[in-house]
What does this fold into?
Amino acid sequence: MVLSGLEDQLAPLRSWLFPRRVYLQLEDQAFTAMVLDGESVAWQERVPLPEGLCVNGEPQAVEALGDLLGDWLVERGFPGARVKAVLPRDATAWRVIEWPDAAWPEHPELVVREQQQELDLPWSLQDADVFLEPLPGAQPRSLLVAVQRSLLEAWIAVCSQAGVALDGVEALQVCLCRAVQQQLGDGVQVVLQLKPDQSWLLALADGEPLGEWSLPPAADRETFASALKGWGQRYAPRAALVVEGDPALAEALGCLISGLASVDGVPALWGLAEAEQRR
It folds into this structure.
């Protein structure tokens, strides 16, 4: 009994001295956290956020968000956690860039910033951090991921207020691609998030990102099916994987449809964790 009581007293101290890795998905509506024990989920939970605390991926009340996050992690036994986060979809912009003249530019980031208007980005790259990752293939291509610097600094401030260390962030789409790659085959494959208020189609070609398209709400079945059919006729996907929503809603694509089977919980968080586990 004495040893048991001592263990209970030491547990909080051990948590502070040896903080656990927490994978965190940030959204306007909620925080979703996951902690792994080996390859098994030790903890996973979603906590809703009060309306207006985060809008379009940007914290509107840093102190309130930080206090909520910090209190939540302490209550669940993860004080001072080391956090890696999936940024909200609206917080990042990404494009697949095919470099002209079949050659890599000497200063690719400078080229991107000079020609950003052609990329049809949702905001200027003037005050953004830009990351370029080479993609395989005969044609020189790169995956561009950009995040607004002020927004990133706001999330760093949220984590500081929460008393946790933010070790890294990734774009939602990149994490989704990584999470489902093992389940996709050759040719054009589709990953679908079918939400009542907004749906998204993420396409990959031979396992590499092709692009992302917004779709009508899944609740508006007729409009949604028409948009999905039009996309399918243009790109002729070989298969589609539904990671959120009813797979039956995707039949208008006209290809093999399946639901997510091997990833338990939130796919983006598994994609985030997988990058670290590969090392």
In short: Residues 6-11 have pLDDT under 50 and may be disordered. The helical segments are 2-17, 62-75, 108-114, 149-162, 172-180, 221-235, 267-277. The first helix runs from residue 2 to 17.
